[in-house]
Amino acid sequence: MTLRKTKTAPNIARTHQQMRGEVDKLRTEIEAVQGEIEWTKSAPLPRGEVKNLLNAWISEQGEKFPGSQVVSGAVTNHRVNIDVLSLSGRMDGRATEGFVTGFAHTDLAPLMCYLLGDVLRERLSAELAQVDYQPGPPAAERPGLIEKLEADLLAQEVVEERLVVEAEAAGLEIPRRLDCNPEVVLDFQE
């Protein structure tokens, strides 16, 4: 028995090749959108926002220092009655045989920010200017951008599932991505 070549065989093979190519191309686009979502979520903040965060931290730390208590203690008690190095300190250690062993941790940030806040702002601003990085979008814009990207991703995943189902109907098995959206697969309707 001899098999005849038919014109349909090359067309089927071509169709399978085209289907696989469409899915591969779409998966490359899906991967790019997934990467853009992750980058948008975790990208460094713009310099202005970083500077604002640093300045807010310096102000917050400086406000923790009880400068008014130091002054009022000097006014009412005629002496400074505060140990500035143990304002926010804590002791880490354990008690053994009636003795506490360990070491003290003292947070000097409130004192330093209270005394040298402007100097710290200038120094940290200069340090920030020296950092070479690609900033992402402003924090306030990120939720909207991520929402749009996730909607784009969902639309692409629906198209991908449609292509996979069409390929299966044509006798071509194209495995689904390991990270495919299960809701898209389970809710898919032709």
Could you characterize what this model shows?
It is a single chain. The protein is mostly helical. The protein has two domains: 15-43 and 136-190; 47-135, no CATH class. The protein is built from six helices and two strands. The protein has a two-stranded antiparallel ribbon with strand order 1-2. Strand 1 (90-96) and strand 2 (99-105) form a beta hairpin. Helix 1 (8-42) packs antiparallel against helix 5 and helix 2 packs antiparallel against helix 4 (109-130). It is elongated, with a radius of gyration of 32 Å. The model is unreliable at 1-8 (pLDDT under 50).
Task: Note the run of SSEs as H and E.
Answer: HHHEEHHH
Helix content: 55-70%
Mean pLDDT: 84
Largest beta sheet, briefly?
Answer: 2 strands, antiparallel
Number of domains: 2
Write the layout of secondary structure elements.
Elements: H1 8-42, H2 47-64, H3 67-77, E1 90-96, E2 99-105, H4 109-130, H5 142-169, H6 182-187
Antiparallel strand pairs: 1-2
Helix pairs in contact: 1-5, 2-4
Distinctive features:
single chain; two-stranded antiparallel sheet; elongated
Could you give a short description of this structure?
The chain has 190 residues and is mainly alpha-helical.
